[in-house]
Input
Amino acid sequence: DIQMTQSPSSLSASIGDRVTITCRASQSIASYLNWYQQKPGKAPQLLIYATSSLQSGVPSRFSGSGSGTDFTLTISSLQPEDFATYYCQQTYSTPQTFGQGTKVEIK
Amino acid sequence: QVQLVESGGGLVKPGGSLRLSCATSGFTFSDYYMNWIRQAPGKGLEWVSYISTSSSHTNYADSVKGRFTISRDNAKNSLYLQMNSLRAEDTAIYYCARDYSGDKTDYWGQGTLVTVSS
Output
């Protein structure tokens, strides 16, 4: 199975900050990398698919980049509604696997 | 709009069985692969199983292989997960989720909680 490792596991940031979360795959996954946001008590929501494509309805302050084994999710200007846990997911091979999550908290 | 609504969760003793259901609407169910994904309390996401559009292909995580069975009824727009020989480590919220072309999981239900405890 492909292991997905996110860093950091948690971070504290202020409104308006630029936030970057990284995700590393244990082997190359080409561009088969998605990002999800999960708020407490809610289901995950798709933010970014295929590394850098913005899912419909997702604000443009979210962006993704990378290829191969190293990927990043960037929030250009953190908003109050962005405080949540973020997960990366690889769909290059079965089983699809997720990172352990990055919790973004208010500083 | 796309809706996925899970049901069937609850408290069950170790070794017991449970059948989860997922009722869908707002899209052509028979056109999409479907997944079950779970999340243990306070933990991350774990893919459990997927099923192809015609049920001809299924796949399972090693952790549930031989104990869980995924199925679907395209006439009823519904997805199912039969869970047997349940263990404490199966305790989780189980999400029904739509697979888009094998590349992304674009819609999720609200989840149903399964608790395995004596």
Chain B has a mean pLDDT of 97. Residues 81 and 104 of chain B are 21 Å apart (CA to CA).
